[in-house]
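Methods: holo model generation. Sequences were used as deposited, without trimming of termini or removal of tags, and paired with ligand SMILES retrieved from the corresponding compound records. Each pair was processed once, and we did not select among multiple samples. The sequence and zinc ion SMILES for this entry were:
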Amino acid sequence: MKIKFWGVRGSLPGNAHPYEAKDRFSFLMKAFLNSGYKSADDIEVFLKSIKHTQLHGFGTATTSVQIFNQKNPLQNLIIDGGSGIRYISEAAALNHCAQKEYHIFISHFHFDHIVGLPFFTPHFIPGYKINYYAVQPECEDVIRGIFKKPVFPVGYEDLKAHIQFNTLKPHEKVNINGFMVTPYKLDHPDPCFGFRVEKDHHVYAHAVDSEINRRTEDALGLDAPFYKNVDLLYIDAQYAEEDMTHKKGWGHGTFERAFELGTHFNIKQIYMAHYDPNATDQDIQKFKARAEVYYQEKRLKEKFIWDFIYETQEIVLR
Ligand SMILES: [Zn+2]
Ligand SMILES: [Zn+2]
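and the model returned the structure below.
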């Protein structure tokens, strides 16, 4: 199984702040000169030596994740239609991809998880098929409401693809396109469901958006199996615990809570995201440094590995 993260920001897609470009340019110029490079001919070599996040940042698109069968990339699922989903159709067009059927799971209908759907071009192409899946029965009404004047110029009835809606049941496993998928309830103000995706003995758990209020087996009850023996947990860590006094009830988690799940449920890798729209790349780097201190202090090294994810990052489960 391979997971590609096309959008990792939360709440609102954003452009980098103008001053971020200046900071990044300044950092790169200093690093170039400190590395001993002098000529313009060295620029490409130098840029290849720079970490992805230092060069590109963490990204600005909102949640959209694609899960591939590593042996056959045309077999895949998409979770959430944030602004990152646009890159999926762009990449498919660029690569002359033969895929004509898509399976899209929607966790919930907050804007940041559906805003990219009108820009997912397979909707407009005859001969294509799009299957939507959600626990919430209102999924069809919401999607129809997006493709509707005056909020979008093309009406739902004018879409050329064949579109089908499927309602899932919480805790009920379904086989979709060769993946076993089970929805579980997350801790969010409006109903929001995480998806546990299993294939070839590998498990991916998609857990955005969630305040992660329930972190023990007892508290989670029927939702506890969501986190058990997960290979890769992708989870909402928009805030740190000290922010929660004034962000309580907003429906977003913290790295401390994500780490607690990791220790309770024997999770192998935890990747965190759903970055605040106001967070600059430098803010996220500082946040990551704080998480590292916490991880070391709590001696979690033997338990799991973790990181903050960046847009377009791919992780292969072997
Ligand atoms: Zn969100
Ligand atoms: Zn939300």
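Residues 10-11, 63, 110, 112-113, 208-209, 274 surround zinc ion (ligand 1) (CB under 6 Å).
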